[in-house]
Amino acid sequence: MTRLLQQVAIASCRLRLARPLRKGEAPALRGFFGRQFEDEVLVHNHGPNDQLIYQYPRIQFKVIDRTAVLIGIAEGAELLSRLWLSIDTTRLGNEELTVMDSQFETTEQTIEVTDQPIRYRFETPWLALNQANFREYTQSRSTSFRREKLNKTLVGNCLGMCKSLGVFFPPEQRISADCAAITSIKTTLKGKGMIGFVGKFELNLRLPDYIGLGKSVSRGFGTIEQTD
């Protein structure tokens, strides 16, 4: 079987601010940049009349190791490479924070189906459940049902991301996931309590580190990293 291999541009911008950040400050980080670069649709994903653009976010905002991290994907990588030198301060709420140091890197990363599963972990909570499958998940007492629901959801997240990025695989190259080692935690999104998932999982798909899967990845949720 011929494996289809595709390259995607990934840009990473790390900003060390005047104080260490808390994990929950990624949404505020996104809000600041959305206002700062309101003419750049890829930064905030809103079109005319503030209409939401439904595509996999090309620029994502995260807090990793208490540092602000901006990830640009595909055309978002090129945009981030143009914007990052103009970032010298940020404002989170009423607090203005100077950028003390910044590092920028652009690479070409491979997305491909693999013969053997790769182990990843969620660095930030994965928001896997929408209103419909949240009810199914929480009402079921079956561990196998819950696990399979998460497996299918993760595969769906990957397929949706790939489709949005123009990455497609032939029918015989099927994506599979194993979420047996992840656990649920309480988290919040826009002030609303939600269930998120953290921990390790396996996926027969090679993906770039620090991209997000699931809901609200532009706000830092669902950030993945390959692990042992």
Structure, explained:
The protein has about 230 residues and is an alpha+beta fold. It has two domains: about 5-110, Alpha-Beta Plaits; about 115-225, 2-Layer Sandwich (Alpha-Beta Plaits). It has five helices and nine strands. Strands 1, 2, 3, 4, 5, 6, 7, 8 and 9 form a nine-stranded antiparallel β-sheet that branches. The model has no long low-confidence stretch (mean pLDDT about 90).
Helices, strands, pairings?
Blueprint: E1 5-17, H1 26-36, H2 41-44, E2 59-64, E3 67-73, H3 75-83, E4 89-92, E5 95-126, H4 131-139, H5 143-164, E6 177-178, E7 182-189, E8 192-206, E9 224-226
List the defining traits of the structure above:
single chain, 228 residues, alpha+beta, Alpha-Beta Plaits, 9-stranded antiparallel β-sheet, 5 helices, 9 strands
Number of strands: 9
Any idea what the CATH architecture of the largest domain is? 2-Layer Sandwich
CATH topology of the largest domain: Alpha-Beta Plaits
The secondary-structure class comes to alpha+beta
Question: DSSP strand (E) fraction?
Answer: 35-45%
Count structural domains.
2
Indicate the percent of residues in helices.
10-25%
Globally, the shape reads: globular
Distance between the termini: 27 Å
Rg is 18 Å
CATH top-level class of the largest domain:
Alpha Beta
Taking pLDDT < 50 over at least 5 consecutive residues as the criterion, the unreliable ranges are: none
Q: Largest sheet, if any?
A: 9 strands, antiparallel
SSE arrangement, N to C: EHHEEHEEHHEEEE
